Each structure stands twice: as C-alpha cells, then as structure tokens.
Amino acid sequence: MSDLSTFSPFPRLPIEIRRLIWAHALPRGRVQLFAKSVPWEDWRLYPPLIARVCHESREVVQDFAVVRGFPTAHDKHNETWFIGSRDVLELASGYPYPLSNPEPFFATAEALAINAGDFRGDIQSVVKDLIGGTRFPSVKIVYLVAEQISTAYWPRFRPDLTEQDKGNGTILDLCDSGDLKSIEEYKAWARSQEMSPVFPKREEVEIPLRAALDELIVGELNAYWHFTALESQNTTTIQGPSQLHHILNRDDAWVQQQWKRLPDFRPALLVLGWT
Known about the structure:
By secondary structure, this protein is an alpha/beta fold. It has one domain (about 15-275). The chain has helices at about 15-25, 55-65, 105-110, 120-130, 175-190, 200-235, 255-260, and strands spanning about 30-35, 65-70, 80-85, 90, 110-115, 140-150, 170-175, 265-275. It has a six-stranded mixed beta sheet. It has a two-stranded antiparallel sheet with strand order 2-3. Helix 3 links the parallel strand 4 and strand 5. Helix 4 packs across helix 6 (about 200-235).
C-alpha cells in the first residue's frame, strides 16, 4: 500500500487549488478568550501547525488570521493568531473593554461565546451592539455558555485539535446533532471507565435561556426604536410624538424584521482541557 501521508504531485497543482487545500486544513473550534482581567499571554492562540509547513501555507494562514502581538518581559514574540471564520471569540470580564483595542477581533469573528448567566452585563451589551450595527459585522452565531466542564479527556470531544490548543477549550453546541452525539459517545465511554459525568440536557437549558433572551432582545429593540424615532423627530415632522410612547412587542412587523438581522443564539457548553 502506498504511503497516504504524502502526495508528491502537490507542488505541481495550480496555486489556487493548493491555497484551497491549505485553507481546508485550518483548525476549527478553537476558543479565543478576550477578558479584561486576564493577561494577554494566558489566552493567546498559537499559530496553526500548517503555518509551519512552508512559506506558502504560512501566507494562507496569515490571510485568514488576525495576528496581534502582545510582547511581555518573558516573551518578546507573544502573539495570538485568531481565525475569525474558524475560531470562537469568547467575551468575558467587562465587555466592551474600553481600555483595549479589540476591534480587529470583533470585525472578523463569525462566532461569539458569552456566559449565559450574564444577561444584565455582557449579553445585554453585545445584543445592543448587534442591534445598532456598531460591531460584529460577520457574526453568524452567538453561543450562550450554560456550563463549563473541565476534563483531562478533552481530546475525545475535538480529536482534530492539537495539543497546543487544549488549554483554551472548545465549544459544544447543544443544538448541533454532531456535538450532541459527541456528548453521548463520551458518556458511554466514561461509564465503561466507571465514571459518571453529568451534562445538562438541552431542553433544561434552552427553554429558560430563550425566554430570558427574547425579553432582553425585545427590550433592546424598543430602546433602539425610540432612539431612532427621537432622532427622526429632531430632523423631520413626518413622525409624530405618539411614536415616542409606543411600546413594541414580539409580534410587531418592525421587531420581526430587525430580529432577522440578528445572529443565531444557541445554548452551549464550554469544555476546558487540563494542561
């Protein structure tokens, strides 16, 4: 049998195809923590392994990644490599971080993760920014992290991620059939090892989260509606004063229209590895 770990004709492929192959090899599901109270060097994502293969592969990774350096006294080359289309940006501890410059991360992130218990803090601030369109132009999904789980057997959930990424954890989407299957397979394996891990059920987590989220979104949409109505009233007489006192509900056509602009919110678990 031929060696399947090598492909000799690869250099002869057109460069467009080679770049597509390198891009396909980028890791998925890494978690990039962004927190005001956590030192930069403790949450950085390392360059993906393919960035070390050759000059061409490194260029592809750099095209996809936000690479920012945060040098310290102990590490002059301290960098984080965040791939917005593949990694998850976890917001914690004081969003929107007025004393830092997170905008390059916000501009490219397609997935966010927020503590599900923080409806009066980070979640409210993120929803307000999503409604106003001031940040996160690329975000398609927001994970509401209902629980954190630490386990030395973390690779069983994401065997495709490398050892260097283990400490940063991974997200398990409680609405994703693949992730739910991974949880059930892990539980079955754990029972064979005489362990009894406990995972929250989707319905137990999702119902209260959806109710709280709907209330928050309607409230923030009302605030946005009245803000724009007040601005309009200051510049034109087309909209009457009565609009300023109108309270929108979930079934209003304008609310429905604005809701469609928001990303998908999903309950999730954050699995952290032991390093």
